[in-house]
Amino acid sequence: MPYAALDDDSSILTVSRLNAQIKSLLESSFPLVWVKGEISNFRAPSSGHYYFTLKDERSQINAVFFRFQNRRLRFKPDSGIQVLCQARVGVYEPRGEYQLIVEVMEPLGIGALQLAFEQLKKKLAAEGLFDPSRKRRMPLCPRNVAVVTSPSGAAVRDILKIFRRSPYPLSVTILPVAVQGSEAGREIAAALDAVHELNERFQWDVIIVGRGGGSIEDLWPFNEEIPARAIASCPVPVISAVGHEIDLTISDLAADLRMPTPTAAAEWVVRSVEHFHRETCTARDRLVQIMIRAVENRKTMLRFLEKRLPDPKRRFQDLHLYVDDRTQRLQLAISRRIEKAGTLTAHLAEKLRFLHPSRKIAQHRQTLSQYMKDLVLFQRRSLEVRRMLLGNCISRLETLSPLAVLSRGYSITYRLPGMKLLKRSSEVRAGNEVLVRLSEGSIVCTVSQTEEKSS
Fold first, then answer.
1. pTM over 0.70
2. CATH number at residue 165
């Protein structure tokens, strides 16, 4: 009877209790550990949580990275990436599975920011955001400039210093934003999005987006996706001037023109304006010389034509005589045409009087009056005939009416129920009820006796 003894032993555990004890033991023994390995079977469902397997050459373990923790990542995890994770060991009791609950993740070998930079660069390049054919042409003479940068940084001071040196007037609008910190990328994107509404008022020729140099962390707002897409969709050509000459950001790749520093961007604007004015002045001088030579050539040709031109007075006199002759002939032709038209008008008026429709109208009126009289007479005769036919029909109907027969003392008998018309005595039996319809009213009777038709 050993099995009965086991059934009564209180040390036997249920599956749920065993999983709970395992969960308590593991989570207390491994509260927080660092684990490195390769990501595989990576999944990112709509919930925002990351599910994957962390493995090395000999073993693997399931892991989860919850949304409220992974949203601070600078890069996008994917299968095949070597990572270092700070995690807690947890047990999912319903299935008795243990897993890593990741709280911190860093890529191995390459920094998280550099990996995020390469991932975003690859993604936007695949969408064609960096395609040279998409970039807008820079203006020849950018005189109205908007600068998206920090209002207190060194970049805006350098830009304004260069603009003040320009011999030509420049209009500068500062769109103040933060260029460092977690919210800087959104502020830069919001300023560029505002250009869609403000450009109709300010008519900017070019937008300069930039800041001074710094570490990759300081320049990171210019490596985010939101400002890059705002630069690409901006209606005004954008110059990216971020950091130093060796720095390259996503904003540099998305912009229509990249300058190594904010100072270089301002110098490009000043040089473009100066070059435009020089070219304009050169073209103006060249045009003046061409016009002077053209005028001299026309003067020479005019003097040559003056020598060959006959006296215009004689030509004018001939034309005057020609006009007088044509005027007299025109007046004579008009007079004859008027006379001919008058004769024709008189002839047509006489013909119109002869064909005037008043006589035909009188004739048709007499005919119409006669037709009306005939129609009234016909209607009267037809009505009398119809009345006679109606009287005959009424007489015939009264003769054939069963009511007339009933009025002479006859009756109609029906069997109840059902109101079946009786024609023979055999159709009822003693005790049946019948309805006898008279000329006026009806009688319900009970049959007491039936007789066959007698001779």
1. no
2. 3.40.50.280
